[in-house]
Design brief:
568 residues; alpha/beta; D-Maltodextrin-Binding Protein, domain 2; 2 domains; 4-stranded mixed beta sheet; 3-stranded antiparallel beta sheet; 10% strand; Extracellular solute-binding protein
């Protein structure tokens, strides 16, 4: 099939996909999550960064490719991404002109130009429209679904040789830390069609956040079981923990998208959105497991009893955040970086508010195990025919070196002295899987205990300084301590998950039927689960959902997933 015909074939579904580019682009939460991931500072050498007398061939006198070679004369490279809000910049910098765009040009001879910048405040399908019309930039970031569509449409090029020739030792080492799984997910018919945004999966596990100022006011202890957690939730609803004399507080916070429930489901040994082995050793989707039915039945009881916000079905994530700031929520399952956003902002509006992280709890005598999906959610691709696809790899080499290598300057390239998060600026980033937990957590904890910082890398040194500042009374560093501190931090919680974490059994790219049917299945699931929770449908409706899920493409997806597993 010709490329133009394939593009036309996929245009309809492309137009409905949401824009998803850099995780640094939208809210503080995404930025803070990205900020905590990096690579080993010892991986590259200063000699690799000496960019003098380089030509556009990126080779030295002996013809060896230099991973940091500078284009001379400079080249212009076009890309797209989500815009960063103006308050993310200082000293007159902008999305188009900042420390990283200048470093690309100074060190590599790459003039980066954005064809457009997506609006971070709303949903956008601009990239999907660009893909459908084949009006794409030279290099850019895409979702798994978009990568599949671009490969099928023959719109992007093979990066196998680019990776082998241009990836620095640090980048190759990072790419192999997961055993090559991320690279395999971007490989089609033996060709590496994209560079994955490598990352760690443990940091995506849910933890349990609780308003401990409320809990202590009511004379309650941290929960060790689901029953104890639900008793805390009941107390938050009935005992006026905010002391305003009104019946306006509730325990568990969820939104109409049913976000904020993964940790709750995990407590019932249900694993939404990931693939787990059944009794026969075959992979099955966690959304249709019997344990999910049990968890939904409990949520139905909680809703009927008033433990959940009666209006959750019409509240999006933004409205839930408002509820937190308005002093109405006491329990929230979610990410390790919630200390930065939304809790830090809420604390500024509510003096005395205190949130602390705890491990998820079990509904029975079996331990609660956190489940996580495939850690790669973005891929970097090069337009078919673009003359310099290697710029993706070279920009990643530079990111690792300037942020964590021998030439690293933390305040210049990562977080400025004023606290501006410069790490959000690079258009391409990759992260070491074990960087946050256990590496940074254990390194900083050890330094706090010994007061010896000599072994810390630049990021760890920065964390150490903020954490010790908080320990000495600096409340401005509360968010950093609650995430990465030696005790009562989300990193401490995640470190406890390290040996029991359940990772999805499917680590491949979206299967053909996922591309075609996943949106329909997700809509069916959200509608059914919402009705069950609200009591608008009996719990038996779950069984009908499973039957429909299978008929509408779930069985075919399951077959494709297990075919992939059989080849591994």
């Amino acid at each position: 099939m010709a490329r133009k015909e394939r593009i036309t074939l996929f245009a309809a579904c492309l137009l409905t996909t949401s824009l998803m580019l850099s995780a640094c682009g939208g809210n503080n939460n995404a930025g803070n999550e990205a900020s905590k991931q990096s690579t080993d500072s010892e991986s590259t050498t200063a000699n690799n960064s000496a960019n003098t007398n380089k030509t556009s061939t990126n080779t030295d006198a002996e013809g060896t490719v230099d991973p940091f070679g500078k284009y001379d004369p400079p080249i212009t490279v076009h890309s797209v991404r989500m815009a960063l809000p103006a308050d993310r910049f200082e000293n007159g910098d902008t999305n188009e002109n900042n420390v990283w765009t200048r470093e690309y040009e100074s060190a590599l001879g790459i003039k980066l130009e954005y064809d457009w910048l997506g609006d971070p405040s709303g949903d956008s399908n601009k990239l999907d429209i660009s893909i459908a019309s084949n009006d794409i930039p030279d290099v850019f970031g895409v979702t798994t679904k978009q990568m599949n569509q671009l490969v099928e449409g023959e719109q992007i090029q093979d990066l196998t040789e680019v990776w082998e020739k241009y990836a620095s030792p640090a980048l190759k080492e990072l790419g192999n830390q997961d055993g090559g799984l991320a690279l395999k997910a971007a490989t089609f018919d033996g060709k590496l069609m994209a560079i994955p945004k490598f990352g760690g999966n443990i940091t995506s596990a849910d933890i349990l956040w609780i308003r401990t100022d409320w809990m202590e006011k009511l004379g309650m202890q941290p929960p060790k079981t689901m029953d104890e957690l639900l008793k805390i939730s009941e107390a938050f609803m009935t005992k006026d923990p905010d002391g305003n004399g009104k019946d306006d507080t509730f325990g568990l916070a969820i939104s109409k998208e049913l976000s904020g429930l993964t940790g709750f489901y995990n407590g019932f040994h249900a694993y939404p959105g990931i693939w787990v082995k059944d009794a026969t050793g075959k992979l099955t989707n966690g959304n249709i497991a019997p344990e999910m039915k049990t968890a939904l039945a409990e949520l139905q009881k909680l809703y009927k009893a008033g433990f959940l916000d009666k209006e959750f079905a019409v509240k999006d994530g933004g409205k839930v955040i408002e509820s937190i700031s308005q002093n109405k929520v006491g329990i929230y399952f979610g990410a390790n970086w919630y200390s930065y956003w939304p809790f830090n902002d809420a604390r500024k509006q509510n003096p005395g508010m205190e949130w602390k992280p705890f491990p998820i709890v079990s509904a029975d005598d079996k331990p609660a195990i956190a489940g996580v999906g495939f850690p790669v959610y973005e891929y970097y691709v090069a337009k078919d025919g673009f003359e310099h696809p290697e710029v993706i790899v070279k920009m990643l080499n530079l990111w690792l070196e300037r942020a964590y290598g021998q030439t690293a300057d933390w305040t210049k390239y990562s977080v400025s002295a004023k606290g501006t998060e410069l790490f959000q600026y690079p258009v391409f980033q990759v992260f070491a899987p074990n960087k946050d937990v256990p590496d940074n957590y254990l390194a900083v904890k050890g330094a706090v205990e010994s007061k010896d910082t000599s072994a810390l890398n630049p990021e760890q040194k920065s964390l150490y300084e903020k954490i010790t500042a908080f320990m000495n009374g600096d409340q401005e560093q509360w968010a950093t301590y609650r995430q990465a501190g030696p005790t009562e931090s989300s990193f401490e919680v995640l470190a406890g998950y390290k040996d029991t974490l359940l990772t999805t059994g499917y680590l491949g790219a979206n299967t053909p039927t996922m591309v075609e049917k996943q949106g329909v299945l997700d809509k069916l699931q959200n509608e059914t689960f919402t009705k069950i929770i609200m009591g608008a449908a009996p719990i038996e409706e779950f069984d009908k959902f499973v039957e429909q899920w299978k008929k509408l493409g779930g069985d075919q997806i399951t077959s494709e997933v297990n075919d992939w597993a059989a080849k591994q």
